[in-house]
Amino acid sequence: MPDVSGCVRVSPDGRYILATGTYKPRVKCYEVAALSLKFERCFDSEVIQFDILSDDYSKLVFLQEDRYVEFHSQAGRWFRMRIPKFGRDLTYHYPSCDLYIAASGSEIYRLNLQQGRFLNSLQTEATTGVNKCAFHPSHYLFVCGTEDGRVEAWDPRSRHRVGTLDCAANMAAENVQLNEFRSVKQLGVTALTYSDALTLGVGTQTGQVLLYDIRSNRPLLIKDHNDGYAIRDLEFHDSSGMVLSMSSKIVKIWEKATGEPHTSIESGVDYNDLCVVPQSGMLFLATEDTKMQTYFLPSLGAAPRWCSHLDALIEELEEEEAPTQYDDYKFVTEDELKQLGLHDLIGSDMLRAVMHGYYMDLRLYNKAKLIANPFDYNDFMKRKVKQKISEENQRGIQTKKLPNINRDLFERLLEDKQEKNKKRAKTAETLLKDDRFSNLFSSTDFQIDKDSVEYQLINPVLSRMDKKKKKQKLEEEEEERAFLEARGDLEGDESSDSDSIMSDFGDDKPEKEDREDSKLKQEAELERKMLKPRKRNIEEVKASPGKKPEPKPQSSKTQEITFRSANSLTELKANRKKLEKMPLSERLGMEDSPGESIKQHSFGSREMNYVIKKAPKFERMRQQQKEHQEERRKIRRSTNKLKGKFRIKEPL
Question: Which domain holds residue 434?
Answer without folding.
Answer: 402-460
